[in-house]
């Protein structure tokens, strides 16, 4: 029998400080406010995660979000664990973003404007605390059109029934607007401009130019296309699931999507359909011209940043004013690496990533993400490593932890940045660099991290680690997740074995680097956080 365990690996001398590993509890799925099912990973579901959000079975993707009580609307195929164009809107609610109560689906195809599928969209809260949904429908002519729905009973805190606007669609491709009928989807959360008019962006494509088309309305029913898109970029292909929101300068607090002021920057995120990754840029919103101006110029794969360097797509943020601290929370769809055949065999596909708080970092040049505090409710048995000096080249087993579910928080104190090797300017691809410098290659500062889902003799494992390089006027952290040593423990031959990587630059000498890994059977989420001295 193969034993799953966690090892610490170090290939140079450093200080390990306050290393704490937390064994996670189960995620209970509740119905009607009562616990009725516990999805453990026994029997025929050895890889199903226990505290990521996912429906009991079949396909899911694309999160959409909340009102009052937390509401999660998501793309759902009720018939099979594969993608289908004829998807519906699943619906669950929560009071803590951890424990979820499933409800009947919010929307099925039922009008000519969505008869071939209720695709993704967003919730906007109108005055009077009235939520409405703008969503993409696939109409009888297989055109992508934009529809409106509202709760049947606004006083129902669970918003269990939704009514579609009888005059749908509100927006449709035609000979006048010349919008591509097969590339016109995913309306964002709308925001109010200074003129009192609503604005919304919808993803599109014109030839190979990606577009966030801007529309305006004074009543949320009648929309007109703006003279220019909010933003566009050549050679980026279809822009899916655009998300546009403000962030505060020098504050981790979130603000409403319609907020503005001198202490605000703006973020535009799009999901690049051609490569299936989520990219964002920080910039300025010119409210007079209704255009977004990225700080780094052109919005493309090379100049923009990614939310996540693993399987993470069709993400969506929302402003959480339910929490006293006020925060912006990021959700994202994790499409696992298993094959279609394997998905059909196990009966489910896709989960939501752990929700993350997101804010602008002190430099104002990138976003910071960290798991929401509520996730810590799931922690159970604690295993603690005291402060200690670890010799280079050592591998230390974390005794007492053999579970495949763990929340690992460990800090590394680095005393000599001078040992960092120089980053070759030609090393522009983090994934290739992680292949060249895998966990077995000793460097000046690194690698250091964890071997997880490891067999007893280390014949197989996943290495998650980082190493530090000296770049031009800054240090660069290379983060790697290497699944190439997985043989039989999890995915076997049916699953892609990958090396996932990212490069992050920082200017300060951060002697304390925190690594946090949440490991849930078939899914791992790795984060790194630096702390100024």
TrEMBL record:
It catalyses: Hydrolysis of terminal non-reducing beta-D-fructofuranoside residues in beta-D-fructofuranosides. Residues 52-371 form the Glycosyl hydrolase family 32 N-terminal domain. The lineage of its organism: Eukaryota, Viridiplantae, Streptophyta, Embryophyta, Tracheophyta. This is Beta-fructofuranosidase. InterPro entries: Fructan_Metab_Enzymes, Glyco_hydro_32, Glyco_hydro_32_C, Glyco_hydro_32_N. It holds the Pfam family Glyco_hydro_32N. Residues 374-467 form the Glycosyl hydrolase family 32 C-terminal domain. Keywords: Glycosidase, Hydrolase, Signal. The keyword Cell membrane does not apply. GO terms for biological process: carbohydrate metabolic process. One of its GO terms (molecular function) is beta-fructofuranosidase activity. Residues 1-16 form the signal peptide. Belongs to the glycosyl hydrolase 32 family. It comes from the Eukaryota. The keyword NAD does not apply. PANTHER family: BETA-FRUCTOFURANOSIDASE, INSOLUBLE ISOENZYME CWINV1-RELATED.
């Amino acid at each position: 029998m193969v034993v799953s365990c966690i090892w610490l690996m170090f290939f140079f001398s450093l200080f390990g400080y306050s290393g704490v590993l937390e064994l996670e509890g189960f995620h209970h799925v509740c119905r009607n406010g009562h616990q009725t099912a516990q999805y453990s990973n026994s029997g025929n579901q050895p890889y199903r995660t226990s505290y990521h959000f996912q429906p009991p079975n079949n396909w899911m993707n694309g999160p959409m979000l909340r009102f009052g009580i937390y509401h999660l609307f998501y793309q759902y195929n009720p018939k099979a664990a594969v993608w289908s164009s004829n998807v519906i809107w699943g619906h669950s609610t929560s009071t803590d973003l951890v424990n979820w109560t499933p409800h009947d689906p919010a929307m099925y195809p039922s009008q000519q404007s969505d008869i071939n599928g209720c695709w993704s969209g967003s919730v906007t809260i109108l005055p009077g605390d009235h939520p409405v949904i703008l969503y993409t429908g696939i109409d009888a002519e297989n055109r992508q059109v934009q529809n409106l729905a509202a709760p049947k009973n606004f006083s129902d805190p669970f918003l269990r029934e939704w009514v579609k606007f009888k005059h749908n669609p509100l927006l449709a491709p035609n000979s006048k607007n010349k919008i591509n009928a097969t590339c016109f989807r995913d309306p964002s959360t709308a925001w109010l401009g200074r003129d009192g008019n609503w604005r919304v962006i919808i993803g599109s494509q014109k030839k190979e130019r990606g577009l966030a088309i801007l529309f305006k309305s004074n009543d949320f029913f009648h929309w007109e296309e703006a003279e220019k898109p909010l933003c566009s970029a050549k050679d980026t292909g279809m822009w899916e699931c655009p998300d546009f929101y403000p962030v505060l300068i020098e504050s981790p607090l979130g603000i409403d999507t319609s907020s503005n002021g001198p202490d605000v920057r703006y973020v535009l995120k799009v999901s690049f359909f051609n490569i299936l990754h989520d990219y964002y840029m920080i910039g300025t919103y010119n409210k007079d011209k209704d255009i977004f101006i990225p700080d780094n110029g052109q919005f493309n794969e090379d100049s923009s940043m990614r939310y996540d360097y693993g399987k993470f797509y069709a993400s969506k943020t929302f402003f959480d004013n339910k929490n006293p601290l006020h925060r912006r929370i990021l959700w994202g769809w994790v499409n696992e690496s298993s094959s279609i055949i394997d998905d059909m065999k196990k009966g489910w596909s896709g989960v939501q990533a752990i929700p993350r708080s997101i804010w602008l970092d002190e430099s104002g040049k990138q976003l910071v993400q960290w798991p929401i505090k509520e996730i810590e409710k799931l922690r159970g048995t604690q295993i603690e490593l005291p402060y200690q000096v670890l010799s280079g080249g050592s591998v230390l087993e974390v005794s007492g932890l053999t579970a495949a579910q763990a929340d690992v928080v460990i800090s590394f104190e680095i005393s000599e940045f001078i040992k960092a090797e120089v980053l070759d300017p030609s090393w522009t691809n983090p994934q290739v660099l992680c292949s060249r410098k895998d966990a077995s290659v000793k460097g000046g500062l690194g690698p250091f991290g964890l071997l997880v889902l490891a067999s007893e003799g280390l014949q197989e494992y996943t290495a998650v680690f980082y190493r530090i390089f000296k770049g031009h006027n800054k240090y660069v952290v290379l983060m790697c997740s290497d699944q190439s040593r997985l043989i039989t423990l999890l995915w076997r031959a049916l699953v892609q074995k990958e090396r996932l990587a990212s490069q992050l630059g920082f200017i300060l000498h951060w002697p304390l680097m925190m690594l946090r890994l949440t490991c849930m059977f078939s899914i791992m989420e790795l984060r790194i956080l630096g702390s100024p001295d």
